[in-house]
Design a protein that fits this description.
heterodimer, A: mainly beta, elongated, B: alpha+beta, 6-stranded mixed beta barrel, 6 helices, 25 strands
Chain lengths: ~30, ~425
């Protein structure tokens, strides 16, 4: 198992907000 | 004498003149009218009042009011410039695709580096963005030409004595050979990045212009990789989206305000997701409502995105464990979620309870919950949800629940693994 993309996060909008120190998660059909 | 101007202290503007004191009217008179203009007489408001004036008191009051006026101007300027800063924050989107065509199981974006297209693996678990670079001492086979600094006018070397080179140590944990230069500071800053799977890249730190979607940025610090080995497929390099100062997120803080997001597409149908920089809410128009969880601060792990794992559920059944309430790293480049043993045990027990009747198979590597599903066409899998502080739920995509060790489905394992001990 090498550097493989994270299938578990598929079809999710994952928002990294380093200014407000928070991470957002929402379902999304990519 | 030519460099000085003489002020006559007996003739300054505060000297009241009798003509003003005696003035009976302070109304301005029209001084005449031209074809396109009108002239009005201007008088000083203090000097034309006609009253006896306490000049010391007036002076103090005037300076006080003057100060208030300056403060007011400063506030207005501050408000205007902060609005300008907000406006300068921009957004951009890049298609995010499977790297299968490049023989990597990771996700890929294409960006322009020094005007040339480069396909980069997206990784939130590391910091330095790098590409394979000419002349290359040892490079893996990549699709497309290597980046060639000799033909780029925007390529700049980062030297050992720069603060950027020093910051690299914090980001990569490797000092490179700079420390051994014995004061020879005009040498290029060499970097080494080693990944958890044994892959590595080493080369020279440099800066270059980069185009992300329609946004062009100058002087992005990146690694010019001269010696690279590992599971990078045919990609040109890697985009580091970690949290240290050399990461793309930190370097573009003023442009994108430290915000980025992605939607990872299904690999099978060649669909394209997006990697988005900046806080453009229109990106989320096709999403369900966003739930947020705080990023946990850990001074020893500044490069990583850490969340507080507070719960999990399998098929709607909430799991109980005393280990909930601890930090967990989130990384776009890791496929198997590792859990503390007590949480993993709870996940495994409940999953086996709900996914019963399927033939089991021997474990594989770190995966110990495996099945032989060759005789099934469709299977129903319990929904797995991971819950973070603030009740932010991540529902595991159905294709991420299992890891297909063998493509014929004779060995399919639950894509979760246990850490060795609770506090690992």
């Amino acid at each position: 198992v090498g550097i493989i993309g994270n299938y578990q996060q598929k079809n999710q909008r994952v928002i990294y907000d380093t200014t407000q120190e928070r991470l957002g998660i929402a379902g999304e059909n990519c | 004498v030519d460099q000085k101007k003489i002020l006559s202290v007996h003739n300054n503007i505060w000297s009241p003149k009798k003509s003003y004191e005696a003035s009976s009217s302070c109304f301005s008179r029209s001084l005449g009218k031209g074809r396109d203009s009108t002239a009005l007489e201007m008088k000083h408001r203090e000097l034309c009042s006609g009253k006896t004036i306490d000049w010391g008191k007036k002076m103090r009051r005037a300076l006080l009011l003057d100060n208030i006026r300056v403060q007011s101007l400063q506030l207005r300027i501050k408000a205007m410039t902060s609005r300008t800063t907000e406006q300068s924050v921009s957004e951009t989107q890049i298609p995010l695709t499977s790297g299968i065509k490049l023989e990597t199981l990771n996700y890929i974006v294409t960006v322009e580096l020094g005007g040339k297209n480069m396909s980069l693996i997206v990784d939130t678990g590391s910091d330095l963005t790098w590409v394979q670079c000419q002349p290359c001492r040892s490079c893996y086979n990549q699709q497309g030409p290597l980046y060639d600094p000799s033909v780029s006018s925007s390529y700049k070397t980062v030297f050992c004595n720069s603060s950027t080179c020093q910051d690299l140590v914090a980001a990569t944990g490797n000092s490179g050979p700079c420390g051994g230069n014995n004061g020879v500071v005009k040498t290029s800053c060499e970097y080494v990045v080693s990944y958890g799977d044994g892959s590595y890249t080493r080369g020279d730190l440099a800066s270059e212009s980069i185009k992300l979607g329609d946004t062009k940025l100058e002087n992005l610090v990146f690694g010019c990789g001269r010696n690279n080995k590992g599971l990078f497929g045919g990609a040109s390099g890697l985009m580091g989206l970690g949290r240290s100062s050399v990461s793309l997120v930190s370097q573009t803080l003023k442009t994108f305000n430290g915000v980025f997001s992605y939607c990872l597409p299904s690999l099978e149908d060649g669909a394209s997701g997006t990697l988005s920089f900046g806080n453009d809410s229109s990106v989320y128009k096709n999403s369900t409502s966003v739930s947020y969880t705080p990023l946990v601060q850990n001074p020893q792990l500044r490069s990583f995105y850490i969340l507080n794992l507070t719960g999990a559920s399998i098929g709607g059944v909430e799991l109980k464990s005393s280990s909930f309430g601890r930090g967990i790293l989130i990384d776009s480049g890791t496929v198997i979620t590792r859990l503390p043993p007590s949480i993993y045990k709870a996940v495994k027990t409940e999953f086996l309870k709900q996914f019963s009747g399927f033939p089991s198979a021997p474990g594989y590597s770190i995966l110990d919950t495996c099945f032989n599903l060759t005789s099934y066409e469709d299977i129903s899998i319990p929904t797995i949800k991971i819950i973070f502080e603030g009740n932010a739920e991540l529902e595991i995509d159905v294709t991420g629940v299992f890891y297909f060790v063998k493509p014929d489905a004779s060995l399919v394992c639950l894509a979760f693994a246990s850490l060795s001990y609770e506090n690992e």
